[in-house]
Design goal:
223 residues; mainly alpha; 8 helices; cell membrane; membrane; Energy-coupling factor transporter transmembrane component T; transmembrane helix; ECF_transporter_component
Length: 223
């Protein structure tokens, strides 16, 4: 059970804008709304995954503020703070990652988004899931060659880790953007005529819950 894609996209835009005006405490409230957004869609695996990650980030940020007040380590708190701020947006994006490409395109076209912007949004929303899959493949190859970052002994040779894990991923990243753009063009995203779709794009009764969560997310800066 997933909310309408247009609702998910509006929720993503809402979180992206609201995080600019929130503190760490209100960001926790916003993250709670985002997690509830996943739960209402019965996306249990991403929900459990993000709960662990966000809780770990909060603990790390608290410890960093308490014990790493030395200026030379101050950047750690800043990095954790930035990650905490953008986490609600990433949580909502993980929901959109479950939507089929065709349905995503058809829903965004219903919102009258210009094709040039639509192509950018589609590639951006599909980029990270595909990149994650590519990283998994690269790591599996690294495990066979015993140069994986999961093998603790390799951390003594950081340059080797970088060469066999990060460099291939960077090279794939460059090509992925082209591949995703070509895929969208193949589906006729830039065709000059009206598009059709096999998906039924309409709001349902369950989407009312999503709109309530969307309203709460917009009210977060005023809490």
């Amino acid at each position: 059970m997933l909310f309408d894609v247009r609702l998910q996209f509006l929720m993503l835009l809402s979180c992206s804008g609201v995080i600019l005006f929130t503190s760490v405490k209100t960001t926790i409230f916003l993250a709670g709304i985002a997690l509830l957004f996943l739960g209402c869609q019965q996306l249990w695996k991403p929900l459990f995954y993000w709960m662990i990650i966000y809780t770990s980030l909060l603990i790390a940020y608290s410890l960093a503020n308490q014990y790493l007040k030395i200026s030379s380590f101050g950047y750690i708190s800043i990095i954790l703070f930035i990650i905490l701020r953008i986490s609600p947006t990433l949580i909502i994006a993980s929901s959109l990652a479950k939507v089929p490409s065709g349905k995503l395109l058809a829903s965004l076209q219903r919102m009258r988004i210009p094709d040039s912007l639509l192509l950018t949004l589609t590639v951006a929303l599909r980029f990270f899931p595909v990149l994650k899959m590519e990283a998994k493949i690269i790591n599996e190859n690294a495990v066979v060659r015993r140069v994986s970052y999961k093998q603790l002994g390799n951390w003594l040779r950081v340059t080797r880790l970088f060469e066999y894990n990060i460099v291939p991923l960077l090279m794939r990243t460059i090509r992925l953007a082209d591949d995703l753009s070509s895929s969208a063009a193949t589906r006729g995203i830039d065709a000059p005529f009206k598009k059709t779709t096999i998906y039924i794009i309409r709001f349902s009764a369950i989407d009312s819950i999503g709109f309530i969560l969307l309203t709460f997310s917009l009210m977060t800066p005023f809490i």
